[in-house]
Design brief:
With 150 residues, this protein is an alpha+beta fold. Helix content is 21%, strand content 15%. α2 (53-64) crosses α3 (118-130). The protein is globular, with a radius of gyration of 16 Å.
Length: 150
């Protein structure tokens, strides 16, 4: 079987997409412009009706060409956000280093993402890559308000 290499140039372990055979702690984390964290807790999985939701988002990102380059979007699944009452939840972060309009889509909490269509997701991806507000892709009911302390 031919050796596989990830985008950082490291040989990849068999059965993995990017896990290096030899970890080099001196290599930086691969750059991303936006990072989407999706909940993969028990209730969110039930809302998605699949364990494959983060993989599907990654596939859509590849289809849009936003899996590499300066506008790269990264998707990570987390075990549980503890926001089960909101259905499937995602949290959006923007890489604030080197981004002039980084605050626009930073630290957004979005609910019921299992109801978003593929077209809606792709619209969100393009807005993130262009530094445009994703609010035009979302409705007010899609947002989760965060409590603040005075």
């Amino acid at each position: 079987m031919a050796k596989k290499f990830n985008t950082m140039g490291s040989e990849v372990q068999e059965g993995f997409v990017c896990k290096p055979v030899v970890r080099d702690n001196n290599k930086p984390i691969m750059y991303y412009k936006s990072h989407i964290f999706t909940c993969s807790g028990e209730r969110c999985k039930k809302a998605h009706r699949t364990d494959e939701f983060p993989k599907r988002l990654r596939q859509m990102i590849k289809e849009t060409g936003l899996n590499t380059g300066p506008n790269r979007i990264k998707v990570s699944d987390v075990n549980c956000f503890g926001a089960c009452r909101f259905g499937a939840v995602a949290n959006f972060y923007v890489n604030t280093k080197g981004s002039s309009n980084s605050i626009i889509n930073n630290a957004l909490w979005i609910k019921k993402i299992h109801r978003f269509t593929e077209d809606k997701w792709k619209g969100i991806f393009y807005a993130l890559s262009n530094g445009d507000s994703i609010d035009k892709m979302l409705e007010a009911k899609d947002h989760i308000e965060m409590a603040t302390f005075d």
